[in-house]
Every structure is written in structure tokens, then in C-alpha cells.
Amino acid sequence: MAMSAEERVVTEDLVPSGRRARPSRGLSRYHDVLPRLEFARHVDIEKRRTDRSKSPLSLVVFSIDRSGERMLKSVDRLLTTLQLNKRENDILGYLGRNRIALLLVETDASGAEGFIRSMESRTGGLTYSVASGTYPDEIFDNLLAGRPAIPDGSAFAFHETVKHGPWSRALKRGLDVIGALALLVALSPVMLVAAAAVRMSSPGPVIYKQTRLGRRGVPFTFYKFRSMVVNNDDRLHREYVQSLIKGKLQEINQGDAERPLYKIKGDPRITPVGHLIRKSSIDELPQLFNVLKGDMSLVGPRPPLPYETERYESWHMRRILEVNPGITGLWQVEGRNRVTFDEMVRLDLRYVREWSLWLDIKILFKTVFAVLRFDGEG
Residue 61: phi, psi to the nearest 5? Predict the structure, then answer.
């Protein structure tokens, strides 16, 4: 990734390891300030540690609105103050241009706010703007409050650009569009028959529309062939989701200890035709239009319902932050209803971590075999 002129001025003397640097053009202290890529790597490590330990993790980003020598002096002063006041295990990094970030380990939102206030009292006369966020609780709170936009600096979003560049995203989008169009053409007779069967089986619309959460928690309209009676009570599913997420598996296990099967038993809301199209996964086919619209991908984590996220732990939210949700994914081909919710999330996070075009293609082929085995929900 090419650096801007300002980045070269400030970082030209950083050693390759990113752990220590010599003074550069008037910047008198650069102890333990990590360059962008190295800082992103440490962010990734701390995110995963937080996922395991459930301890809080906060990020504070400082921006200085100056240029030239005045900007360098301001950055020098800010860095000196940060180095004197941060704890030994906190991580200081340079994000580029005039932006400095501090990763506050084991620090919640109130702790981050307290640190910002202490910095204000120690940097009198220094003009800068600051943004903060706690991983990923602030995002979680925004979703609950109906504010899907992620605050600047709070989502660690710069790490995603390190991992998946524009070419990777373009390739994935290309596969999505070409694949969705090809499947719509090839499966149009099946979709027409399914639509007619749904129409004749029970009163109500052919297409069921539902609000789901997409990438970064942005809500979108999700399409399926209707498999249930209209105006049904979703309380049964809410209770099932709560038990699944909370790990109360004995209440929802329709199998046994060796071969568990987590699903709603004898769901009275499902129509006879609905059982068939769910078992064959035909009910999912209208989501190909979601893919064309850009709301979804062919492959990715399943998009959650808003009331599901109310039960999420903080680390669960990562499954919808970094990539578009998908029609199929690792969970569908490797776990389905036989794994716990935490295991499903780990599969989603593994997909995000290991994504490649070849991985998407392999999952799509495995999905075909799963569909032919009638491995749907039923």
C-alpha cells in the first residue's frame, strides 16, 4: 500500500519491525509507535484475545488538523503526551497522515472516555479531534438504538482494508453477480413451480419479506418463498433463538448427545408445501435478488434478525461487521443444525479470516451436494 507524502515524512525512519524508531524531522520521540500495518496486526490479535476472554477493548483515534511543520510539531507533542500517559500494555499506532491511534487493552467505554478527558487536561493549547469506540459494544448499542452507521474510528474498520483490498472485493462481487444471474436463469422453472405451489397451498403472498441485518448491521429487506402461514406468532422462534444463543441446548436438541439436532420441533407455522421447499432449500432462491441488489453475497454468514442480536455477546457481533451476509456459508456445509451457536459464529469468523475466491467456489460446490441430500431445515 503506497504512503502519502505526509506518511513518508513522519514514518520514513521507522524501523522495519515497527517496534522502535529514531527521531524524524523534528519529531523528537517515536518510542513504540507502530506503523499502520503493524498496528492493524496487533489490533487483530487483541480482538481475538477479547473474543476469548470477553474483556473490553477500546480504541481512541486522534486527528490533528494542521499541515507542514506545525503538524509535525503537534504530532510530536501529542505522541510525547500519549507515551507518558498510556499503560505498558496499551498499543500506540500511526494510521497515516495526521492520525494517531491508541488501543486501550482491557478498557471499557467509560475508561476510554476517562483517558480522553485526562489527555485534554494534559494537552492544553493543542488542537485536535478525537473519536473512540469499544469493541464491539458501541456498534452493538447503535444497532439496538436503530442507528446502524458505525462511528468513525470505533469499528477498527481500517483493518479490513489491510486484509481484503479492492481487487478482492471486486472479484467477490463479480462472482456474486455472474453466479446469481446464472442461477436465476437456470432455476427459473423451479422458482415458477415453487411460486405456484406456495400460492395454491395457503392464502398470502408468494414472497415473504423480512428485515435482516447486513454488513455492519445495516438493515435490509430479505426475500424468501413463504413457507409459513401468514400473521404467525414469532414467539416460538424468539424462544428458540434465546435458548440456542444462551447455550440451553437440552431444551432444543431434537437428536441425542452424540448426534445433536438443534431446531424447532413440529413448528405449527409451517405449511405442507413449506416443509418441502425448506427441506430442499428452494425457499432460499429469492435471495438471489438480494445478491444482485448488493445486500447479500452468494457466500457469507447468515444475516441475523434484529431480535437475535439483542441476545448476542459482544464477540458474536463480529460475524456481521466485515463481510456481506450470504445465502450459504461454512455453517451450512459444515455444521447446519448440528452445531451450537458459538460454533456457528466461529465458523463465520473463520470464513472471514480465511476468505478467498477459491474458498467461495468450494463452499458453493459443497452447497450443491448438501441441497441434493435434502439437508435443509425441513
Answer: -115, 125
pTM listed for this prediction: 0.62
- What percentage of the chain reaches a pLDDT higher than 70? 79
Q: Which of 235, 236, 243 is nearest to 267 (CA)?
A: 236
Q: Do the beta carbons of residue 228 and residue 203 sit within 8 Å?
A: no
| Bridge partners, residue 57, by sequence | 105, 135
Which one has a higher pLDDT value, 80 or 180? 180
Among 2.30.30.100, 3.40.50.720, 3.30.70.270, 3.90.830.10, name the CATH number for the domain at 5-163.
3.30.70.270
User: What is the domain partition of the chain in residue ranges?
Assistant: 5-163, 166-372
Cα separations (Å) of 206 from 40, 54, 218, 227? 46, 43, 25, 9
Name the one residue in this structure whose C-alpha cell is 426475500.
223
Cα–Cα distance, 153 to 233 (Å, whole number): 40
Q: What average pLDDT does the chain have?
A: 79
Determine which helix (DSSP H) or strand (DSSP E) holds 92, and give its type and residue range: strand 91-96
